[in-house]
Specification:
The chain is globular and about 60 Å long. The chain has a single domain, classed as Methylglyoxal synthase-like domain (Rossmann fold, 3-Layer(aba) Sandwich). The model has no long low-confidence stretch (mean pLDDT 95). By secondary structure, the protein is an alpha/beta fold. It starts with 12 loop residues before the first strand and ends in a 15-residue tail after the last helix.
């Protein structure tokens, strides 16, 4: 299988476009205005509750300028129950594209997509979901996040260019580096964030695995209306 082995990258990458979808919304009221102050041309893409939270933080006038709903960007409305929101070619091309790969740059032009420079995503702790009284296997299954971990993993993989941010406690350090470097983050910062990002998804998957391993497959017939 052929893989892209990258040699040429930028140490400092300016953050112009940010994708946000967070369970823990603490610190957004500091992060979002700070990013705009640092780069007045910055743009945000978001979904659901995060989109609403950012819109409230910015107010109508600034939201119109700086904020776009993912479904408006991709041209694909969310499916029923939020089943599919961010799993879209334009989103992942924007996350995974490489700066000095001419083919990738042509793909961006072809699809009218943009390179995304920062992905801010954190996941609702699965262990908190299954700790609730009366939770069934089906309820647990329905709460397994697909798009969130995928965004985290994609952005973390492409630390060459993208900052993958999973912890609000990192916002202050990110803002500090951006302020002192013309709105840019360096490779060392991006790689440190990647280390935390993969730890975040590993813990999430570990909690799912631990819960499922405790369930008896023979009991599933008591949950569903099984069809022949």
């Amino acid at each position: 299988m052929a893989v892209n082995v990258v040699k040429k990258i930028d140490n400092w990458v300016k953050v112009n476009r940010v994708l946000l979808s967070v369970s823990d919304k603490s610190g957004l009221d500091e992060l979002v205005p700070a990013l705009i102050e640092i780069n007045p041309d910055i743009h945000f893409y978001s979904t659901g509750g995060t989109y609403a939270a950012i819109g409230k933080i910015l107010g109508e006038e600034k939201a119109t300028k700086h904020l776009t709903q993912v479904s408006d960007y991709t041209g694909q409305p969310e499916t029923q129950g939020g089943l599919v929101k961010t799993l879209d070619f334009k989103i992942y091309l924007g996350i995974l594209t490489e700066t000095y790969n001419e083919s990738h740059q042509e793909d961006l032009k072809r699809t009218d997509a943009y390179a995304l420079d920062m992905v801010v995503v954190n996941l609702y702790p699965f262990k908190d979901t299954v700790a609730k009284e009366g939770v069934t296997v089906e309820m647990a299954r329905a709460n397994i996040d697909i798009g969130g971990p995928t965004m985290v993993r994609a952005s973390a993989k492409n630390y060459h260019r993208v900052a993958s941010v999973v912890n609000p406690s990192d916002y202050a350090g990110i803002i500090e580096q951006l302020k002192g470097n013309d709105g840019k983050l360096n490779l060392a910062m991006r790689f440190a964030l990647t280390q935390k990002a993969f730890a975040h998804t590993a813990e999430y998957d570990s909690n799912i695995s631990a819960y499922l391993s405790k369930q008896n497959p023979e009991d599933l017939g008591n949950i569903y209306d099984l069809q022949k």
